[in-house]
């Protein structure tokens, strides 16, 4: 299912955490840094905002709700201990200048 409530996050996840993600890098940091390098700052801000809204909306249920709203080719737990930690790491990296 494609999320319509969080379009920036869905686009980011689909475009950067797909089956060939390792072409860009093997870590959240490498992937996010490349995204920031090739994308306008407004896009990074929009993705981070979607993440913050999603996490606050589903506080304590992020891992369960993620699969209902997003469809990506990789398991976020390959990068972090939980989906929430995965999203937090992405948002924090996006918000870092």
From TrEMBL:
It comes from the Bacteria. InterPro entries: CdiI_2. It holds the Pfam family CdiI_2. Residues 5-94 form the CdiI immunity protein domain. This is CdiI immunity protein domain-containing protein. It comes from Candidatus Methylumidiphilus alinenensis.
